[in-house]
What we know:
By secondary structure, the chain is mainly α. Helices cover about 85% and strands about 0% of the residues.
Amino acid sequence: MTDNISAEQLRLLIERVERLEEEKKGLSDDIRDVYLEAKSTGFDIKTMRTIVRLRRMEKHHRDEAEMLLDTYKQALGLS
Length: 79
């Protein structure tokens, strides 16, 4: 009996993961389409991705990352 319950529970979990993976792919396709639309109107996709990544960060982490980037740029004579 336990094997049947475990097998059924496992099957349901696998099916949930599969559905979520399908949804994730759909969302990834939608995001790609938005970036392609932005590119077709003249926006730089690489910069947009950087902005999206920065906006996800907490302010103190973003400030720290920008400070480190400035420090490294100065050390390499890029400033």
